[in-house]
Design brief:
The structure is a homodimer of 334-residue chains. Chain A has 334 residues and is an alpha/beta fold. Chain A has two domains: 148 residues, Nucleotidyltransferase, domain 5 (2-Layer Sandwich), CATH 3.30.420; 171 residues, ATPase, nucleotide binding domain (Nucleotidyltransferase, domain 5). Helix content of chain A is 40%, strand content 21%. Chain A is built from eleven helices and 13 strands. In chain A, the strands form three sheets. A five-stranded mixed β-sheet of chain A has the order 3-2-1-4-8. In chain A, helix 7 packs across helix 8 and helix 8 crosses helix 9. The longest helix of chain A is centred in the C-terminal third of the chain and has 25 residues. The first copy, chain A, is globular. The interface between A and B is large, with 49 and 49 residues.
């Protein structure tokens, strides 16, 4: 059977907290992921545990899709894997991933050999952005930039329908763009990074600092007074309940994000910026002040050319993008 | 005579202060510009004056090259024009250029029709960066980012040997990246732009502010006490003379530039950053603290992959890049 007869590709989205695995037909179908599997990562149990878990999930999803669609393993072209980086795509190796505790770890080949299918590896945020480009919010554009807001802020750049990787696979680290050169210390060692203001933990930290400084707000009540339990989701909850202080924290978050996006708009002049992550649930509370900040800061002809939109593939962008990435890398075109 | 028989291309580098015009053979030759012409722009005399001056310079350079190399006008493939933007490349129109006072001005066709040769138009900083990629510091790389430091800070992005333009020809406006979200007001209307700290006038302004606040320095003596005459070149002169305060201003400049370049290194992961402009004469006084700042702020695997170097085509990068741009746009490849 030649490559052209293959019907499906497996996608793996490996995160610090969860693993998501699923399958799409080569042409993407209607974007509905088949045989969707989800499990916790449990990185603390070690690399072998995590790899075994991924391999089992891949085999389970293959089995399920074969059962549902009368197929066999030989119908599968291979496996696209999205993982936290930095990583080396050509060797398929994770260079160093603090969240997983891995160093120089040959993730791609371990999975490929165990399953017996070819595999390709790329950064998780690149994959999520590529998924949105292929079957999500960015279906109609050639050039887009993605921000994934979570424990950190990841990013991906798609130019002319390809993930842009740069000289050493680092391109797209928009979360570590300095917005205030003498600002907050970031986990990356730098000061004033976007991530130090607008990641989930950073949003929570800013909220707690204001509360400790005497802000009037219902946020402490939402966590029974345990400020250490306050998260970005708590802030969102406060916004929905009409809390003025929570809204202020959200507006500040929008301004930091808008400043970072304005930089990207001036530098890359993309057709679209796609924002993924829990904080996008805040909807207009986030997007209205965010877009206003971009208008305030970016060149008119650049911001007018750019749509700033929430991601559409909630929970599956990483898997879908890993599949698109495999297709591009191994089969040659998406 | 077919396109393939053409021997030369004319390049025009139009700036707010000067116009530079010259010729290269199609293959670039040894990079030495033939028939080099230079004149002041005198934009205050109006658009017709400037266009007439450019047309005369183009005709003079063509005549000189024909005389020196036994050629005729039919040996010329066309004219590449680099101009301040924003501009529309497809219509060849300057949208709005404050320094020249032009709005919706069809510069490309006016020159093309007057001279009787095809022409192509692009942003001046894009052209300067492309020139460095073709025949200057970036000859050996595929992906590079250029910063041109002068009255403003321009920039250009070359990816896979092509100028990257983005959705509306604005890509590469690195000078208007926010580095301090509540910082200095920039001429573009934004706050805390790189240009508001590290352009020539911004360097001079920071130096004067420190002097007015009582800094001990010889800088006022270098302008006979007339602080309004103090420029970035004065600061450079003070650095050469060993003035500690001038060195402090230069180091601050290097830190702002290094912060902006670190952002670009994290976002685009280029193989090379090329810096052009008078301030690069400061040599190690600029580049040593600048590279240190990039190391302090950017991801290790990204900054290790990136050389940060001064431009090589002093005074001719714009002309050479305009020629390369014409070659790419009209003849199809550089």
């Amino acid at each position: 059977m030649s490559e052209n007869d293959k019907r499906w590709i497996v996608g793996v989205d490996l995160g610090g907290t969860n693993i998501v695995v699923g399958v799409l037909p080569l042409n993407g179908g209607d974007g509905e992921v088949l045989g969707l599997q989800q499990a916790t990562t449990e990185a603390s149990k070690g690399a072998k545990f995590v790899v075994d878990r991924i391999v089992h999930m891949v085999e389970d999803t293959i089995a399920q899709v074969c059962r549902d669609h009368d197929g066999s393993k030989s119908d599968f072209a291979g496996i696209g894997i999205g993982s936290p980086g930095p990583l080396n795509r050509s060797t398929g190796t994770i260079i160093n991933t603090p969240n997983l505790g891995w160093r120089n770890f040959p993730l791609r080949d371990l999975i490929s050999n165990a399953v017996g299918l070819p595999a390709a590896l790329d950064n998780d945020a690149n994959c999520a952005t590529y998924g949105e480009w292929w079957l999500g919010a960015g279906r109609s554009v050639d050039n887009l930039v993605g921000f994934t807001l979570g424990t950190g802020i990841g990013g991906g750049i798609v130019l002319n329908g390809e993930i842009f990787h740069g000289a050493s696979d680092v391109a797209g680290e928009m979360g570590h763009m300095t917005l205030d050169s003498t600002g907050r210390r970031c986990k990356c060692g730098n000061y004033g990074c976007l991530e130090a203001y607008a990641s989930g933990p950073a949003i929570a930290l800013r909220a707690v600092e204001g509360i400790e400084a005497g802000a009037e707000t219902i946020l402490p009540d939402l966590v029974n007074g345990r400020l250490e339990d306050l998260t970005a989701a708590t802030v969102y909850e406060g916004v929905v309940l009409g809390d003025a202080y929570a809204n202020e924290v959200m507006t500040e978050t929008a301004k930091f994000l808008g400043t970072g996006i304005a930089n990207i708009v001036n530098i890359l002049n993309p057709q679209m910026v796609v924002i993924a992550g829990g904080v996008t649930r805040a909807g207009d509370h986030l997007f209205v002040p965010l877009r206003a900040e971009v208008r305030r800061r970016a060149f008119k002809s650049a911001q007018e050319a750019c749509s700033i939109v929430p991601a559409q593939l909630i929970g599956t962008a990483g898997v879908i993008g890993a599949i698109a990435m495999f297709k591009k890398e191994v089969l040659g075109a998406v």
